[in-house]
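Q: What would this complex look like in 3D?
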Amino acid sequence: MVAERSPISIGLTDQQNILEVRDISKAFPGVQALSQVNLRLSNAEVLALIGENGAGKSTLMKILAGIIRPDAGDVYFNGRKVLFNYVRDAERLGIVLIHQELNLVENLDVASNIFLGRERTYAGPLRLIDQRNYSKAAVILKRVGLDCAPNIRVSQLALGQRQLVEIARALSVKAKVLIMDEPTSSLTSAETFRLFDIISELKQSGVSVVYISHRLKEVELIADRVVGLKDGANSGELQRSEINHQTMVQMMVGRELKQLFQDQRRVRTEVQPVLEVKNLRTGLGHEPIEFVVNQGEIVGLSGLMGAGRTELAEVLFGIRRPLGGEVLLNGKKLPFGTTGAAIKAGAILVPEDRRTEGLILSSSVATNINLPSLKRLSTGGLRSFKRERQLSEKMCAELNVRTPNIKQVVGLLSGGNQQKIVLAKWLACNPSLLIFDEPTRGVDIGAKSEIYALMHDLADRGVAILMISSDLEEILGMSDRVIVLHQGSIAGELSKIQLTEEAIMHLSTGGHLR
Amino acid sequence: MRKLAGLTVFLLCLYIALWRAVPPEGLMLNNYNLAERIGQYGIISLGAGIVIIAGGIDLSIGSVAVLAATGTAMLLGNPAYGGNPVLVLALVLAAGAFLGLIHGLFITKINLPAFMVTLCGLFIYRGVARTISGNMSKGLQNQFADLRHCLYDGDIFGLPRFLVIFLILAGVASVFLHLSVYGRYLQAIGGNEKAARYSGISIDAYKILTYVICSIAAALFGILFLMKNDAVTPSSDGFFLELYAIAGAVLGGCSLRGGEGTVAGIIIGTAIMWILPNLTNMWGIPSELEFIVIGGALLLGAILDEKLRPKGAAA
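A: Here is my prediction, written as structure tokens for the whole assembly.
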């Protein structure tokens, strides 16, 4: 493991690079997450890694931290080829990852979390916990600027404070390479600047940092070099002097649109609002949310991860209670906090994670399709198996679901067909508003175009559609109008003619409409 | 801490009520019997509590205890082993540890739900106990006075021996759970298994350990049961034991969500658990209402726990 003295390291790579990744590929069922990605990290360098959601940034970092193994390609540490099987292997070399989703034990106190798995102990094999852990924790907490006692429980901390605990945890390991995956997503601006100070201190002491962020302004401030990823492959590199908002956006975007979308859509002349959101305060952003979705219109809801898109959808569908405001559906006020009322009024959410939220995978196609319609199809509480069969067969035919029969277990169907069944289930209820949360995530290209055609078809029939999507191509191709969220509030609204990838990225990374 | 304080106050109220309800001449005897009962059942609550803290559950406690009692009686009655009671006890406790190991392996390596594995254990060990005993009572036949004296007969400084044994074990468990790294890992595993794994903790080993501890505690309970009652009837003894054990731990603040629980809480919870029926009995409430009182107390505790639980900022 002592790479510097290893003779085979000579001539393999530049000694300046503490970490280098060559031709890394990784596939997950249905997606090629990374294909032949290259990355090098110099000593005492802050490297920013940028890319759209799903570009493969997190996968790459998980490989570097030993959490997942690549299918192909090599990782070199100090010029020597290394293979990580466990998190510990990477940690031993000093590579530490701060996760995007927090991994803290809420029922333990701050110090326990910081040193979990690496506690200082006494009394030999009894391994009693040394109280010095707490004083050491206090020192690190001071360093990250978190003003709390080390013996306070993590469950009592706010989200931003928890993020600082994660950072403190990373600092407590003597890291040589620190990977930060969206470290500022829940920090206040004061906390963010404190983090930047820490990063420059670390850099001074020779630590290299990989900084992943959607917030291009932050990247501009701290990055020595920027590497772009796009659809799992390298999409460019910027040196310090070349880094600015414009160049970064171009590096993240710049792709040709494939012919997936219809060019022409019938323009509706009559404007009949279906969904009216007034003065809605979700508790995330500073500004209340207001917008309208009209009959037969497809409105895209764009924004970065954590911008509050899903939360907004959940409020509209009655899963989450807002702090205040009003939602009208077909002119009638929608009560908050009850999905039953939303469904009855004709609003349907097609959830993002269809495997856990949209389907009962172990049940049949028919059972899944009929579930929300059972009551309507029954007579005096008794189920009508004939009507149920007719409905599910009709929906399967209408949506072109490829299944041997309606008794097939849903879990055995392909992702695209599963998505169609989620749609079938809700379309059977004759909705007037459909909210799609990532309608084509993990769906192959064929099923994708079918789902798009279906959405157009629904819109033409007068259904109002609100589509949440991280896929910019999809947003551009499908939407009549786009609402962009940034940090919980609406950053701007773009009409069809204003719609460009650059404009959306600009708004969703904190820019303003010109 | 607040939870513990609340439970202590509740326990004191119960005890004061009991003290007023029991006729003065019977108070000493009642106290002694109550303390013995708390000591005896506290042992399995401790075992159940440790499993629960690490996010698991053990439903096999009663059957393991009955099997251990039956095995102890039969081994002591066997001339080959009868002369060496220490060996017999060691064998029985080791057998308990082995059963716990089996539970743990099924749960961690084959990934079966703990509820399922230990539910199967509940049936199987009861059946084994009935089979090896020929479905008959097995007893000490008033022999082994030395062994009984050592574990059961007579007081130590006025305290029943079961209580003394329990308090010693509770002391050890306290160090294990609250002062050592191992206990902290159990809390971490119960609280957020993924975070514990990412911290490099060998989750499987610790989970298995909890089931081993719990089954040893159950086997010890079986041995003490035999010492006190002189005989065990596998077809009728030890039903619902696991539920009493779990109830004691949960009343004392162990959360079935995992991650939460203290030894002090388990002691207090067990005490509440056994004062309640004692008190209803003294108040002349018919004994058939006992279960309603215990169930009601558990429910109330659970509601208070949920309502007073500090809510995190993250969903």
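A: To summarize the key features: Residues 102-173 of chain A form one domain. The CA atoms of residues 284 and 488 of chain A lie 5 Å apart.
Q: Very helpful, thank you.
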